Amino acid sequence: METVKCRSLPNNKSKIARTFQKVINLKTATRIASNNGIGVCLLTPQDKFDQDDLNTTCKPQNRTDNHKQKDARAKRRAILEALLAKLFASITAIKAAYAELQIAQNPYSSDLIQAADQAVVDELKQLSELKRSFFKNELHLSPEVTMMLAEVQEQQSLMKTYAITIKKLEADVEGKGSDIGSLKKQLDEAGAFNKSLEKRLNASGPLSMFDNIQFSLLNPTHFVQFLHYTLRSTRSFVKLMVREMEVAHWDIEAAAKAIQPENTVFAKPSHRCFVFESFVNKTMLEGFNHPNEEHRSENYYFNEFRKIKSVNPKQFLTHNPDSSFARFTRAKYLQLVHAKMECSLFGNLNQRKLVNSGVFPDSAFFNAFLEMARRVWALNLLAFSFCEDVSVFQVSKNCRFSDVYMEAVTQDSVLETPNSDSDLRVAFTVVPGFKIGKTVIQSQVYLSPVSS
């Protein structure tokens, strides 16, 4: 390569050359800065370097710097918002995976448990990597893309959680449906059992048997049949009375002890209802063998029995408020339902006031009592229809059990006495016995073990 030799120029030419060189260098720097996006303030040698010229010349450069700083802050803010969105989406994903882990326990599924566990581990790893990148200032996120992906992930996780919740609720509904089906089956079985019992009871003494019966054919068997029919209404009234006591927050045990103060051993707590049944039967049958009016013929009582055995008691009392049955009903209600008891059960004495005034209340409690009173009164009329004497007897406490005069009201395990030092005795009479001439109708007693 040839070497070009230049001669030295005069001093004035050297000065001009240096100036041109300086301009060329400045233009080159400007192009480079422009290519890099950097604004440059150009000053020529002819420019005056006073303060006004400097401010005027460099003003566009200051506006550009401020704009870039704002852009940088906005970009960093967008990156941080995207980071938080990704963080919250990961937390939601962990919650969804944990819910899947829980539901996989019941019923147990090892595959689902492993999948849910792996999902939790993956999300925790992502969170750990996100933390490392943040502290090392190595976040390379596109804010718009990251925000959209985080929103998609969050919605997917929420859908998983909702799907799990729906699945759990469906399982609960299925379980409840199974319980309902089982309870319905039990209800149907109980209804069928009650119907069978009703058929057996009706078969043992249907009222229709009295429709065409002749007075001359009347015998103690008819009395036994109607007695069973009467006792069903008594037990229904007792159950209603005990329910009313429970609603009024009575101490059932204390109430039973008030009627039977002696220490009676009950096989079951529910057997205390026999104490109340004993009290009701004793009250309703008191004076049973003494008519409330002058003595009439047996045929008269039989005809009265046939009239009232199937009549609607409310209608009968409305049309016959001064009849013997009306007087019997008023007297027995006031005797059976004490004023304090009525006030405690119903909060007032309205029913008692109506009965005293000759009006009969229209309530479920009184209607149950009225039906019981009608049957007891009809049984009373039937007893006076016999040509033979009819009497009532009670069994004394602590009497030995006798198959001739008694039957046990319950056949529970209390009747079995594993202790040889104890013996079964009569605790109290639930239903009194009857004697029609020489025929004995067994009383119903509650037995309790006593020490020899």
Contiguous runs where pLDDT drops below 50 for at least 5 residues:
1-13, 22-59, 202-206
Order of strands across the main sheet: 1-4-5
Q: Mean of the pLDDT scores?
A: 78
Helix content: 55-70%
Question: How would you spell out the order of helices and strands?
Answer: HHHHHHHHHHHHHEEEEEE
Quickly give the structural class.
Answer: mainly alpha
**Would you count the extended β strands for me?**
6
Shape: elongated
Query: How many helices does DSSP assign?
Result: 13
Strand content: 5-15%
What can be said about the biggest beta sheet?
Answer: 3 strands, antiparallel
Radius of gyration, rounded? 52 Å
Alpha carbon gap, first and last residue: 146 Å
Quick summary of this structure?
This protein has helices at residues 11-35, 51-103, 110-135, 143-204, 220-247, 252-259, 273-284, 298-308, 313-319, 324-336, 339-346, 350-356, 364-383; strands at 390-393, 406-408, 422-431, 433-436, 439-441, 443-451. 62% of the residues lie in helices and 7% in strands.
Walk me through what this model shows.
Helices cover 62% and strands 7% of the residues. The chain is mainly α. Strand 4 and strand 5 form a beta hairpin. The longest helix has 62 residues. It starts with 10 loop residues before the first helix and ends with a strand.
